[in-house]
Amino acid sequence: MRALVWHGKEDIRCDTVTDPELEQPRDAIVKVTSCAICGSDLHLFHNFIPAMLPGDVMGHEMMGEVVEVGPEAKHKLKVGDRVVVPFTIICGECDQCKRGNFSVCEATNRKKYLADKVFGHPTAGLFGYTHLTGGYPGGQAEYLRVPFADATHIKVPDGIPDEKVLFLGDIFPTGWQAAVQCDIQPTDTVAIWGCGPVGQMAIRSAVLLGAKQVVAIDHLPERLEMAEAGGAITINFDEESVVERLNELTGGLGPEKCIDAIGMEAHVSPSMPDTVYDRAKQMLGVESDRPHVLREMIYVCRPAGVISIPGVYGGLDDKIPMGQLMNKGLTIRTGQTHVNRWTDDLLRRIEEGQIDPSFVITHTVSLDEGPEMYKVFRDKQDSCIKVVLKP
Amino acid sequence: MTYNISNIARSKGDPKVLHSGPSSLGAADRMARALGWFSIGLGLTELIAAKRITRTLGMEGKEALVRAYGVRELGHGIVSLSPDKHLGLWSRVAGDGLDIATLVTAMRHDNPKRDNVGVALAAVLGVTLLDIIGAQGVTARHSRPRGRPRSYRDRTGFPQGVQAARGAARDFKVPPDMRAAPALAAVSNRAPPEKARPL
To answer: Structure pTM?
Structure first.
């Protein structure tokens, strides 16, 4: 089969690889009908997330049709079922899964020995990601082996186009969880840094959950325009001070809820000297991330507010203002997304027409064009916001 | 073909690479990578063999300068190998200018190694040409074209419109483990916090 394969920094290729096979009794094989390139794929593309190996199949946003089912998954899945595959692999049986903390499932990371050393304790296995999270082959491919398939799937009805439900596997529940863990109240201003795909979903989620005002921060005109279309007030950080504008919008109090939909690769600009400092340290390998957004959120957030971090961070961060964080009594909520905790509810909202997540798709191409689209998406060329691949 | 080695470590059911296809790396990216590694090699040489370099060029006494240029080259190399490779290559072009200026000062008639300096100068001029070609190539490949971006004004994501969407999910019950501290949770709608009783 064909698949997009990681060969090294900025080197993704459309390779011919062997077909996946059932390995465990709970496995299933899915014929992928649609998959997407995610913002966090770019962290792997840049080799900022450690423990990738040449030959790793990329992709953690995918859906398709079940074509083979292992004996212990047959009570939940059958050949022909249409499924979205969540990016987090879950057993559905461990203590964490029972609590709904699916992204920290205790059973699915097959490289626990690596995760133990780096994270202290293992987190869930993830598709198409680092070997710290199991090194499971991803879904930017024609076929995908889904481990623990009886639990790791979201069944979707026929008759809804792929584009409307594909993002149930990652960016939609990620944006939703980012907003939910803010516990949005009707009096809240929610500020969202980053108008990429997760930021756009977080904006829509905050609007649906009834925030008083939603403020979106970016500098790319097409992304700000999409944010505005979704009901956000926008701030272009190239043109105005984020802190001053947020204070102005909140009567000098600061936003009660702040969402970081950027993560480890904040935009670098001489007008924000800390980003230049972070970039230099990141190049030298002495700092993993560029946490400008974290610093700005901690500074501007209203005391006793909530900071929600769906953006991916890789390791060690410098100059985090712990004094501000502690004295202001801020709550930080973060984590990979507990996808299956939210998807029944979100699927219902899509079916009822409350939201149509396909608005974010700007490019649909074949799998062969995937390597070039990584470059286009990374360089934000051709007003690219979200790429869907058709294997 | 490093994937052949990692193929060995993959489990039975995982896909293994059979044939490699087209890459996301373009010719300009590969050139940047080659020049980046060249910078690192040259930088290390200048740091380690500064004395030999100055002797070859008849520039004895300038070892500290050569070592400083070595550190500079390492910097160019690191940036050229990073995602910001255009910065690395343009900084290499600037560095080439500095190298040329330094070598020109050594082209004195009384320098017995003048011929060596001429060879070094020719080499630097050749590399400068490569650096300019590489920098222009990478800049062109990775820049956002100027002009109006596409319009996404109609991409609301809400089939029934933004106004209908505002608060449409207020029926959602936030799980207890994700509730905010009551200090900011709509204080106006809640009973005032209980005050501590005086002793």
So the answer is: 0.93
Name the residue in chain A with its Cα closest to that of B190: A185
CB contact under 8 A, B9 and A53: yes
Kindly report, residue by residue over A52-85, the tens digit of the pLDDT. Answer: 999 999 999 999 999 999 999 999 999 999 999 9
Q: How large is the ipTM?
A: 0.94
Residues of A in contact with B142 (CB under 8 A): 375, 379
Residue of A nearest to B25 (CA): A11
Q: How far is CA B135 from CA A150, A267, B31, B139, in A?
A: 51, 21, 9, 6
Residue A48 CA to residue A64 CA, distance in Å, equals 30
Task: Parse chain A into domains and list their residue ranges.
Answer: 2-170+338-390, 173-334
- Interchain contact, B15 vs A57, CB within 8 Å: yes
SS3 A291: coil
* B107-146 per-position pLDDT tens digit: 999 999 999 999 999 999 999 999 999 999 999 999 988 8
Per-residue DSSP letter, A7: E
pLDDT, residue B5, reads 80
Instruction: Name the CATH architecture for the domain at A173-334.
Output: 3-Layer(aba) Sandwich (3.40)
Q: Is A382 left (phi over 0), alpha (psi -120 to 50) or beta?
A: left
The answer to whether the CB of A36 falls within 8 A of the CB of A61 is yes
> B24 and A375: CB-CB below 8 Å?
yes
Q: Which chain B positions have a beta carbon within 8 Å of A347's beta carbon?
A: none
What is the least distance, in Å, from the CA of B21 to any CA of chain A? 5
* CB-CB under 8 Å, B14 with A20: yes
Instruction: Tell me which chain B residue has its CA closest to the CA of residue A231.
Output: B162
H/E element, B112: none
Question: What type of residue is A379?
Answer: D
Interval B157-176: pLDDT, tens: 999 999 999 999 999 999 99
Q: Are strands A387-390 and A363-366 parallel, antiparallel or unpaired?
A: parallel
Using DSSP, state whether A259 is helix, strand or coil: strand
Interchain CB distance below 8 Å, B24 and A305? no
Compute the average pLDDT of residues A295-308. Answer: 97
Give the length of chain B. Answer: 199
A46 touches chain B (CB under 8 A): yes
Can you identify the CATH homologous superfamily of domain A2-170+338-390? Medium-chain alcohol dehydrogenases, catalytic domain (3.90.180.10)
Interface of A with B in 145-174 (CB under 8 A): 145
Pairwise CA distance, residues A262 & A283, whole Å: 19
In chain A, which residue ranges form alpha helices assigned H by DSSP? 39-45, 95-99, 112-119, 162-165, 171-180, 197-208, 221-229, 242-249, 273-284, 292-300, 322-327, 339-351, 370-378
Residues 101-120 of A with CB under 8 A from B: 110
Contact assignment for A231 to B2 by CB distance below 8 Å: no
